[in-house]
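Table 4 source record.
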Amino acid sequence: MSFSRPPNGVYWIKTPVELRAFINLLKKFRGYATTLITLYINSERPIPDVVNLLRSEWSTAANIKDKTTRTHVQDTLERIINNLKGEAKAPENGMAVFAGFHMINQGNYEWVYYVVVPPQPIYTFKYICDTAFHTEILEEQLHAGVVYGIVVIERGEAVIALLKGGQWEVVKTVEFFVPSKHSAGGQSANRYKRQTEHLAETFYKVVAEEVNKIFLQIPTLKGIIVAGPGPTKEDFLEEGGLDYRLKEKVLAVVSACCANEYGVVEAIKNAQEQLKESEYVHAKEVMDKVMYYAVKKSDYIVYGRDRVLKALEMGMAEAVVVAEELGEDVVLEVIMKAEERGVKVEVIPRGVEESKTLMQAFGGYVALLSTPVWVLEQQLQAQAAEAR
């Protein structure tokens, strides 16, 4: 397959955060009438068949009465055909083409051409002419990602959260009066203990009902983390009446300080090994590595836009880390520059707490180097001297 570098570049998208940036970029474009072309090609569809269809569409477009619309549609189809000619099939995950003339203002147009290979397969073939690009199939892939359920429970309080992509959110809070344990003796103490245990069991059942209701509706639920202080979390699993299908998905039972947002963060941290497929946890691990370099291997790290792009340009960057907060244009520019050099780019999502550190301490850009930073400095000084 030779789609790795057509004239305007192919985006081989690997992560949801990259896909999200690309979708947001596409949504900025508008055409004059129905002149923007969206083309989804699944891997089973032979490219010669696609080219033949586009040629037929080119002939049909000759009947469009409005001259600008006709010219834009035919010109766009011609360029797509020329880029696809000679290819046999799309990549394994299929591909999507977004092409046309973006209308900056009346009479002023900008040529736009993107090809994307998404992280998950495209199962359908679609050809659409419209005033905007159609990103629905790509957006479905965003929503189809791995989801983890998190339950943090303590005596009388519980939070239910979802970890998806690069962020987590609390979707339900449960509060229920369960009195603290009574230390006095006698019959009244035994009665009090029975009442307290009954209230605790009722509380566990209320929480389990909410968990069942929320988690059973998520087809992509990968696993569940149950957390909390003391033995409450184990008691909940034994007595709460959690649906057997969800019990089978419990990946870990870990400690957490309390049933609130701080407890969710602690639960994720303490179950990091079980959540390693999560984009959120992966981003945290990447930032741990960045901080390690900053403290222990400072001769092998540069940060800030100019120095990072220079390190890429000179082939000294081993890996690049950028913040999603920089915006989709910046993120995609860095990804394309890095791909030209065969360098991996990690994009830290907005929802990861360490994204703030990346922005504030490093300007949103970091490059981990294969050679010491002084080599880069020497080359920059030599270039500056030559320029003079």
